[in-house]
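Reply to dn_fold:

You asked what the input looked like. This is it:
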Amino acid sequence: MLRARVAVGVVVAVLALGAVVMLDEGDAPGAPPDDSCASGESTYTTDSLHDLRSFSDAMAIVRGVKESVPPPPEGPEGFAGLIGRHVTVRVEGILWRRPDAPEAPRRFRFNDLGWTGTLEDRRPMVVCGETRMKLGRRYLAPVVRHNGTWYPIFTARLRLDGDRVVGGVDGGEAENSHQALAGRSVRGAAQLVARTKPYRAVVVGPSGSPARRWQRVNRDRYRLWRERPGMPVVVMSGVTPKSRYQLYVRFPARGGMCVGLSARALWRGRSVPSGEGCGPRTTPARSVRPIVASTQRGLFAYGHTGRRVVTVRVRFAGEDETAIQPEIQTAPSPTRRAGGGNRFWVVPAEGNCPAVTVQGLDIDGAVLDEHRMDLPPEPPPGSPDPYAACRSG
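and this is what came back:
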């Protein structure tokens, strides 16, 4: 749950022209990040499962059944290239409801992502990290009543394939909560939200709009209800061709900080934890602290850095040393308990060579720190060597 407290991804995004990209009609689940687009802004966060558990009112199966174009705004500009869209959904089932939450109607209408262009020549509007409702399609989504209007939360609308939660946003990267629910059964995803701990401020004061609840949670510094020391907090998530992974951080009661990674199968798999790396809660500003984990779901390099390290460059053994390596953006600390200056990163490997070189770079691209992690020693003669190909490369 990233603590860069800019709330993103709800109704205001519909009107944020600078936050959209235009895509062809159709689906683009798991689309790669687009540097030209940005998320829309809202008044509460949805990045973590704790957010969904605390700020949504229910988990529901919804289907889009009707759409219409609202009257154009008054004035000579009219829609001015940004056309609104009313969508009506039918609620096919409520799988979980937040205690003290209002009961969702069986059918409701809301303002969804519309179009750009003109009424005669229009293209669907797509906001990074969000999902545009498509008529006839079924979704598992957290639904919420905000300022008197019900709607399925834009960032956590998960497409369904029968009983399977397919998920997928139209552009950019899905949030951690979206990734955590994708790949599960419908009931399993809903139960995961129901089991997630809510924020303490929401349990104490459950009434009010999601924006009001978020304000109380923000003042309470995002403390969880009956939180235990050492509980993992998700920092980053992603998908490889054979797994879904999450990078997390823990703060044990005895002090210090532990960083680890868990991975699960793409569809209905259980998480497989890696070993953790533990150390001080603060990291020197120019340092990189890498970890390599090999699980049955793949090989990963990950870790944390100091506040001056904006990107990391990672090269696994066996890769072409002359090739230009892409720089991976580091993510800010998920909680103030991490010392406020730590940043985090994770890179899946394409092969199975655990030897890796990691460089930390500043905002100007200058290398601040470098670490090399070598292969294990060669086994005795005649014994199998799982890394023989890595050594020969």
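The longest helix spans residues 186-195.
Hope that clears it up.
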